Amino acid sequence: MSQPLTHLEPAERDPKKLRRTAFILVAIMAVSGPLILLAYNREEKNQVKDDRPAFIARITEEKDLPLVRQDGSKAAICDLKGKVNVIQTLSATQPDSARIPTEVMQRLARHYAGNKDFVLTSLVLDPGPPENAVPTLLATSQRIGATLPEWWVGTTEPELLHKYVKKELKADDIPHLVKDQWVYDTALVVIDRNRHIRRGVVHQKRGGEPYVATFDFDQAAEWDARGVKTGTDLNNAQQLEKLLIQTIDALLAEPIKP
């Protein structure tokens, strides 16, 4: 059995050594504190500069949207994996309801002409009777200047399409009629090479969380009509279109993931 350690005595404290140790600790904290703060500020600054388009949702093959296109051929949204796709919803019977975003689509078609990694898609929410669907799509494509393979004009069974627009494309509301007038979200939807829905990112001049912008050109035009200023030499619609092109360019530069 071990003996008690009765021979140990408390160590004597040396005030000079204690003061020296305290000074060293204070000096370490004084030096490391600003370094930690500098590193934190650097990381925060890097995050603020992050201009990558925001992720919203992902289009899955399990919930893909089968389409018939303006030439009568069949396709689906997920067939466009590997390409950047800009989607709009429009009415064949009330074309003026999407006039402004359609004009943006037309400018995008000219801007990215010849780019095989970029596709436009117009979803027609009111194709009429099934036997009239393809003629309706063809007439719509001719009216807006959409030609395959760069610009799809497609549709499917209306109820399926309307639900897809709301649930999968994250529209504000499901398309519906109010006094024989279509009410639907006309914002453009951008899908990246890996089938993610992406939106533009706008950093606030005064700091804070970046603003995630939907590409709602009807809303931008409304702001312009009310005299809302952007603080630049561009109006709201022009500024949004500039952001849209920046977003598309960024997505075209991203790799395709397996």
Structure characteristics:
258 residues; alpha+beta; Glutaredoxin; 9-stranded mixed sheet; elongated
Uncertain parts: 1-11, 32-48
CATH topology of the domain at 54-198: Glutaredoxin
CATH class of the domain at 54-198: Alpha Beta
- What pattern of helices and strands is seen along the backbone? HEEEEHEHEHEEEEEHH
Radius of gyration: 29 Å
Query: Outline, from the CA principal axes?
Result: elongated
- Main pleated sheet: 9 strands, mixed
- State the distance separating the first and last CA atoms: 69 Å
The CATH architecture of the domain at 54-198 can be given as 3-Layer(aba) Sandwich
Continuous helix count: 6
CATH H-level superfamily title of the domain at 54-198: Glutaredoxin
In percent terms, what proportion of residues is strand?
A: 15-25%
Quick description:
By secondary structure, this protein is of the alpha+beta class. 37% of the residues lie in helices and 19% in strands. The protein has helices at residues 15-48, 99-111, 133-144, 158-167, 217-225, 236-252; strands at 54-58, 66-69, 74-76, 84-90, 118-124, 151-155, 176-178, 181-183, 189-191, 196-202, 211-213.
Give a description of the structure.
The chain is α+β, with helices and mostly antiparallel strands. The protein has a domain at 54-198: Glutaredoxin (3-Layer(aba) Sandwich). The chain is built from 6 helices and 11 strands. The protein has helices at 15-48, 99-111, 133-144, 158-167, 217-225, 236-252, and strands at residues 54-58, 66-69, 74-76, 84-90, 118-124, 151-155, 176-178, 181-183, 189-191, 196-202, 211-213. Strands 1, 2, 3, 4, 5, 6, 9, 10 and 11 form a 9-stranded mixed beta sheet that branches. The radius of gyration is 29 Å and the shape is elongated. Mean pLDDT is 86; it is low at 1-11 and 32-48.
